[in-house]
Predict the structure.
Amino acid sequence: MIIEPSDAPHLGEVIVDARGIEKYFGRNHVLKGIDLKVRRRQAVMLIGRSGSGKTTLIRCLNFLEEPTAGSVQIDGLQVDADPLHANTRARKEQIRQIRLRTGMLFQEFNLFPHMNVLGNCVEAPMRVRGIPEDEAIATAERLLEKVGLSDKRDEFPARLSGGQKQRVAIARAMCMEPKVLMFDEPTSALDPELVGEVLTVMEELAHEGTTMIVVTHEMHFAREAADTVVYMDEGRIVEAGPPEQVLGDPEDERTKVFLHRYLSSFADREHVHNPELPPAG
Amino acid sequence: MTAADTPQSASILAEIEARQARARTIFRLKSGATWLALIVIVLVGLYATGNIDTAFIGLWGPFIIGGAGLTVLVSAVSIFFATILALIGAVGRLSRNPYLSGVAGLYVALFRGTPLIVQIYFVYLALPQVGIVLPAIPSGIIALSLNYGAYMTEIFRAGIQAVPQGQREAAESLGMSERLVMRRIVLPQAFRIVIPAIGNDFVAMLKDSSLVSILAVEELLFRAQLVGRQNFRSLETLIIAAAIYWILTLTFSFFQERLERRMARGDR
């Protein structure tokens, strides 16, 4: 299924174009032919049961997992799946170029613990892009302010809360000016009271037109921030469309069952997220 | 209101805390006194046999203690080179290149699988036969470095593997090359993980450096033996040597402990 929101004039050209993505872990068939297009300024939320392949899909998009088949095109650069020859120098460089076009956020944040907040943010811009120090610092400070953490620039990650860590990670990823930000369940490792501050930042980014792909279990957030919600099941995209349709009036039986179960079992959790909450710190 | 909130029970809690602290201090003092008592008993016992020559100790003690400088120097230089070797060895062991991995693997297997004393003799006595003639001190340092480098390679390898996979993934996601990921993200973290183990190895090195006395390097043990044998007074000279080794390792352990505690604080 290819996602082409019909009435979305604010969306730009296609940034992410994944075709026929297949992924096996050993004999385990995890992705069964995924086609996914994401346009500039589009916010795509991937939902579905755990084990449906959402995380594997975005990890295939920047080759943290080598897809078994298919191709990934990001901002004009196409890399085909080639698991047998994945380790040649030329291909590694191609994958690096793909990664320069994408930003990735992890469940566990993965800030570099031996560098302070500012160091985390300027490391890749300076050493990978070769941006001069003062310029990299200025960009980092601007983005830290955006996520509400200007005052933490000299702290080490160990002194930050989970929510603050994830917000620093967002600033760090954005310092590389990626064409698309990919979030892998960014709030799953957080204490419930810290989820809101991260979702608030992400919602702001989505509304400003940041291109993003988000694997999430936060349905309320998906409804507020998504242009497109994609429901995955057993390695396939089952349903995709605007949030009010997929979340409000799903066509597919599996989506209905998922949402029904999900919303009933997670009813308490929905109250925790309050988009009006200002970023703490 | 819980019990702890009443002023009365707060004073009881404070009293309990104070007593526990006092008990800990008393325990420490008693166990320290036991050390002291045992050492004094042994020394007094030896002295009582009438075979300890204090004048001899006064005469030759300073000469023996003078060897401590070389002991520390040999150990420090060796641990430095061993660390570099271990770093290269560990990266080699983990390399996907089979030749690099093979070289590093052989190095570790060979130097861990043969006695240090054989390696010391080999460098000093065997290599000259193929035209490589090295003075005693460099020979000792080379052998110690190679031997400890092999052990430390395994420590470093474990340290590198202990850095969470997510760190590499985050760095790679930012477009960093494999080399950059290793140099800027993995190794600095691995280094912090292995510092306690390196400290232990340095203490072991201080002691094992005594083996280079067999090459007539004038370090602590060599001087103690030299003086002791000539005068048939090995009891005095070896007590002095042992005491100096002990003081050196205790001093180093003390600083190492403080360093570790400080680093642990930074992590929190």
Remarks:
- The beta strands of chain A are 14-25, 28-39, 43-47, 69-74, 77-80, 102-105, 180-184, 212-215, 228-233, 236-241.
- The radius of gyration of chain A is 18 Å.
- Residues 14-108+179-272 of chain A form a domain with the Rossmann fold fold (CATH 3.40.50.300).
- Chain A touches chain B through 30 residues (CB under 8 Å).
